Amino acid sequence: MKLRSFGPRLLICLATLLLSSLSFAQTENTATIDCSGATPGAFTSITQAIISSPDHSVFTVTGNCTDNIDIQRRNDLSFFATSPVTIQAGAPDRSLLIISNSQDIDFSGPITMNGGTGVLVANSNNVKFFSVTMQNSSTFGISTLNSQVQVFNGSVSTNTRSGVVTFGGTMELDGVTISNNGRIGVSSATTHLIMTDGNDLPTIVSNNGIAGVQISNSSQGDFTDLQITNNAGNNFGLQAFTNTGVVMQGGSITGNTGIGVNCVATTHCEFFQTQISGNSGGGIQISTHSELALDGGVQISSNTGAGVLIDQASAFGSSGGNVISNNSGDALIVNALSALDFVAPDTITATAGNLALNCNNGSMVTGDISTYKPKKCGVAFQAVPIH
Length: 387
Prior knowledge:
Elements: H1 7-26, E1 29-34, H2 46-52, E2 57-62, E3 65-67, E4 69-72, E5 75-81, E6 85-89, E7 97-100, E8 103-114, E9 119-122, E10 125-135, E11 142-152, E12 155-157, E13 164-174, E14 177-179, E15 184-189, E16 192-196, E17 204-206, E18 211-216, E19 220-224, E20 227-229, E21 235-241, E22 245-249, E23 252-254, E24 258-264, E25 268-272, E26 275-277, E27 284-287, E28 291-294, E29 299-301, E30 308-310, E31 315-318, E32 323-325, E33 332-334, E34 339-342, E35 347-348, E36 357-359, E37 364-366, E38 375-376
């Protein structure tokens, strides 16, 4: 049998592919945008640059700009500011920036997007904002529809309505401050919402006019080192509802006007090493066939009202090592056909005149509750161990 050698042919193919990739890289267009007009040959507006340039373009942006930017059906456009740049909405009743049916669009600051009706991203993938401030919109700071968006080490602030509003797709907020917006800091529906730190900077949702974070309608929230603090409006720090799941590790939900955490309508909320304290409407409320899981290191303290209320056929499971203390109402209430399951002991203490554990209306408790005193939770509420 004759053996054939493919060595030279393979080398030729590899060389051809390499030259092809190098040729593709060399076709990437680069240009300068100087909205001041001081740079000879540079574009004088972002809109002009987008219209006049192909896909796979990289723009260096200098000078402050007045523009309403529309990016539709484009691929691989990147905008870099090497020094602080402000983009002011030219028409205040229009979006400052629209990105639709596009992919691989990047804005890298320091860039401030100011005014108009904010930023809108629709039906687009891999859209990124690095060190970008979105402020002073007459509606939302940034809204997204069925898109994949990341905001990294920026801020969304002082917008008339909510700061971040999403429907569908994925929104990732890394090291972002969302503050002083007129309504809700972050409102997400049918979205995978990721909120975590960026370069060791936490994501902070604070001082918004109505509430902190709302996530709903079959969404998933994955939160790490998130801080939800001092939001007003007598509503909530964090609310999750309608077939939604939230997992929060680290971070804090503190000082909000209203309840710290409200999980309702077949929703799962899970916390690990999180502080929930100083909220004026109670610590955590779980209701309407929902679930609470405390995985250890959770502190629920100094809230006005109950520390934890489990209500309306809902369930609470504890892995142990959590603390519920110093709340102005009962520490832990289980009500209306709900259930508690203590896998391992927690520290649960009541303030004077209140109960550490309060069981009502056909509820059921599993696990050792002997150390929780005072309590109202007789034999009728305690599950019989199966041997």
